[in-house]
């Protein structure tokens, strides 16, 4: 064997190894699901119960008590379409950031592509996302949902942005957590902020009007651009465009409810940002994975 064929011990080909190890990925996803629901009476039905309870709490607190039902048409669908997507992100990132440490025993015994663990966590979260999406689809159909090509495209793009973002951040914090366990606390804080830093519970127009009231016109414009450039904001608005907007009377004038240039400008920005985060996460993971076994 020539020296050009040798590789640094403990280093693989990154996410390309995940593609080559699809069978292992499938086994890890099945194992995670089996372990998570071992001894559980409801099992995967918790995928319905948890978001259902969360939705009811927010709907009563914001929709009924704070009057969002009166100010936002079909607020229940608006709220739930944002909740299912942000829940997917929160679960995927939270589990991915702990996945390497959580599988430390396996990593110390055998070699396999370590990226499999964060990626498997994202896939498990996607499995939990599907039942919630089904409930959303049924609710939308009862509300008169008639999607077009742009709506389907927006839904797929929104999910893709969140999946890439969760994978990239999961790789980054999953690797960092091996060396600095404070990373878990930082991720928990980030997830706490995520729900409020994107228009899940409120509309983007409330952000625009609030900034205009609190700051000068120039400052408000800059802050609004920063807010809208958040990939989670873009993804949630794409879900609103796909599921909520077609059920409202504002479909004839989407600019009233959807941010301007959502599809032609913000969507590409969200995809590019999520891809860059994925590349950064993979680069960081590869730089740090060489000493995973020793650190664990």
Q: Helices and strands in order, then pairings?
A:
Elements: H1 15-20, H2 22-36, H3 46-65, H4 68-71, H5 75-102, H6 104-109, H7 116-142, H8 149-179, H9 182-194, H10 204-214, H11 217-229, H12 231-244, H13 262-288, H14 292-295
Please give a quick description of this structure.
This protein has 296 residues and is an all-alpha fold. Helices cover 74% and strands 0% of the residues.
Shape, please?
globular
By helix and strand content, what is the structural category? mainly alpha
Count all strands and give the number: 0
**Low-pLDDT residue intervals, each spanning 5 or more residues:** none
If you average the pLDDT, what whole number results?
Answer: 84
Q: Ends: how far apart?
A: 32 Å
Largest sheet: none
What radius of gyration results from the CA coordinates?
21 Å
Q: How large is the count of helical segments? A: 14
One letter per element, helices H and strands E, the order comes to HHHHHHHHHHHHHH
Helix content: over 70%
Relative strand content: under 5%
Give a description of the structure.
- α2 (22-36) crosses α7.
- Helix content is 74%, strand content 0%.
- The chain has 296 residues and is an all-alpha fold.
Main attributes of the structure:
single chain, mainly alpha, 14 helices
């Amino acid at each position: 064997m020539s020296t050009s064929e040798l590789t640094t011990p403990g280093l693989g080909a990154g996410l390309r190894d995940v593609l080559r190890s699809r069978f292992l990925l499938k086994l890890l996803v099945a194992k995670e699901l089996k372990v998570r629901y071992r001894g559980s009476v409801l099992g995967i039905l918790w995928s319905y119960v948890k978001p259902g309870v969360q939705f009811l709490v927010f709907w009563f607190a914001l929709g009924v008590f704070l009057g969002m039902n009166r100010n936002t048409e079909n607020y229940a669908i608006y709220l739930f379409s944002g909740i299912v997507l942000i829940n997917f992100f929160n679960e995927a990132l939270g589990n991915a950031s702990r996945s390497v440490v959580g599988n430390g025993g396996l990593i110390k015994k055998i070699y396999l592509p370590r990226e499999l663990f964060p990626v498997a966590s994202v896939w498990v979260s996607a499995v939990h996302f599907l039942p919630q999406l089904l409930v959303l689809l049924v609710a939308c159909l009862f509300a008169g949902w008639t999607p077009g090509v742009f709506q389907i495209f927006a839904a797929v793009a929104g999910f893709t942005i969140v999946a890439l973002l969760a994978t990239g951040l999961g790789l980054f914090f999953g690797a960092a957590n091996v060396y600095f366990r404070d990373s878990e606390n930082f991720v928990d804080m980030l997830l706490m902020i995520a729900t409020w830093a994107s228009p899940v519970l409120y509309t983007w127009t409330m952000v625009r009007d609030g900034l205009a009231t609190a700051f000068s016109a120039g400052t408000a414009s800059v802050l609004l651009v920063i807010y809208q450039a958040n990939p989670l904001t873009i993804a949630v608005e794409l879900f609103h465009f796909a599921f909520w907007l077609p059920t409202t009377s504002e479909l004839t004038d989407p600019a009233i409810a959807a941010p301007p240039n959502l599809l032609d400008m913000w969507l590409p920005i969200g995809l590019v940002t999520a891809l860059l985060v994925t590349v950064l996460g993979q680069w960081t993971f590869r730089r740090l994975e060489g000493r995973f076994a020793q650190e664990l």
